[in-house]
Amino acid sequence: MNLPTESGVDVVTVSLWVLLVLVVVKVVNLVKNFQDHVRALEKFPGPPRHWLLGHVHKLYPPDETGALKFTNELTAEYVYAFPLWFGPIGFLNTCHPEYAKTILATTEPKDEVVYRFIKPWIGDGLLVSHGQKWFRNRRLLTPAFHFGVLQPYTRIFSDSTNIMMAKWKQQGAGALISVFDDVSLMTLDSMLKCALTVDSNCQVDRKQNPYVSAVFGLGKLAVQRFLFFPLHSDLIYYFTPMGYRFRKLCRLVHQHSETVIRERRQALKHQEGHQDSPNQGKKYLDFLDILLKTKDEDGNGLSDAEIRDEVDTFMFEGHDTTASGLSWTLYNLARHPEYQERCRQEARNVLEGRSEVTSPDLPKLSYITMCIKESLRLHTTVPGVGRKLTKEITFPDGKTLPAGSNVGVSPWNIHHNPHVWKDPKVYDPSRFLPENSKGRHSHAFLPFSAGPRNCIGQHFAMNELKTAVALIMQSFRLTVDENHIPTAANSLVLKAAEPGLFLKVMALD
């Protein structure tokens, strides 16, 4: 029998003492942070909190029976803002345009409480970067969303929508479709073509394309982690099968993006020296072309790592949020046949039977635009955004939040605030008639956020939404399935809680 040596005992003892010290330091920091949050938020009235959980037990499930309902009730009571607590971590949830305007006028960095779940995937792209890097890259990326660049994309949106509608027709009259599944594939199809000029064929068989499967898998894994509080711990998540799969899919996506970027950079260099290069025949610049060609005032372009982050960010942000907006718009039109019929008549008058929407058609789709906007209000694609204050901020009523505070802007709560919108639960496209929009607060409608950190791709998204709705309305009648009434749920973007969102589709002659 080997007894531990004196030095061995010393090592064990020292290790235990080090572990104890680390635990004590961690506890002290938690207590200090908790006290800081209490002092910062004590001037803002809000609901009572559980001594240990805060409001976590009220925020689950994250749908219209749980978190979304709970925060809407608080919005009606507290009007402007109220504190919410995730255990010892507190933040101010703002739910009124006046408070939102104050926050969104700044360039304060995003709060990584949620965004850190997807940061290993999207890197330090425009969504989460801050400071000088954000300023520089925002300026460099803006030309990618210029009106002239977006014009040719309407043909791509039309092609992708037509592929989806062909699938619907094959299923027969009155077929029951899972809207989010089909629409997500359609918007991802468009995104791959617009961003990378890649025809993935994902709407026909997404399993044939490992990149497409990986993008879908990463999105689902991020949502699952967000919904299960213990997995918020990086250490716990790292050792779970879910964490392992997330890292594996991240590597696959990054390798794909890096390969495409490397090959495109080589092709552009070849193109510069050869006028007869195959790329000369391209009818549009894709997102990657612009990222590779853009340069700042010093003549410096983006590095391959920066380009990869922006491409991955664009793929994440661009397809899932648009899919949410389109799915809920189709659902709301199915619920209101009278509005659906007006959209159909407008689409037929503008398109005259054409299967392709052109850029000049888009301004003529005024009623469809109103219906889309009202759906984005009622079913807000991104229910909330968070910021981490680097300096003190003062609201119009004189209340302040100190540097280091967590603060959230909730477009969902603003859009459902009865002190801002009359009958906020009612779907009414006439809210967006020009005469009804006059006098409305500039920050009462925030589907794409506002201020310097607003969504850079909002015109891209609206063009795709208008294109898809017009083509679908021209060719199909949608009705709800009474056996599958969906419930909205917040999972990074607003989706439908299980079992999902189903509609019946009827092809029109």
> What name does CATH use for the topology?
Cytochrome p450
Q: Which architecture per CATH?
A: Orthogonal Bundle
The CATH homologous superfamily is called Cytochrome P450
Shape: globular
Give the averaged pLDDT, no decimals: 90
- Which structural category do the helix and sheet elements fall into? alpha+beta
Number of domains: 1
Fraction of residues in helix: 40-55%
Helix-strand string: HHEEHHHHHHEHHHHHHHHEEEEHHHEEEE
Task: Give the count of helical stretches.
Answer: 19
Summarize the structure.
Belongs to the cytochrome P450 family. Its cofactor is heme. The protein has 509 residues and is α+β, with helices and mostly antiparallel strands.
Question: Could you characterize the architecture of this molecule?
Answer:
The chain is α+β, with helices and mostly antiparallel strands. It has one domain: Cytochrome p450, CATH 1.10.630.10. Helices cover 52% and strands 9% of the residues. The chain is built from 19 helices and eleven strands. The chain has helices spanning 6-41, 67-78, 97-104, 112-115, 119-122, 131-141, 147-150, 153-170, 179-196, 210-227, 234-238, 241-273, 287-293, 304-335, 337-351, 366-378, 411-415, 434-437, 458-475; strands at residues 81-86, 89-94, 175-178, 385-388, 393-394, 400-401, 406-409, 476-480, 488-491, 493-496, 502-507. A four-stranded mixed sheet has the order 1-2-7-4. Strands 3-11-8 form a three-stranded antiparallel sheet. Strand 1 (81-86) and strand 2 (89-94) form a beta hairpin. The protein is globular, with a radius of gyration of 25 Å. The termini are far apart.
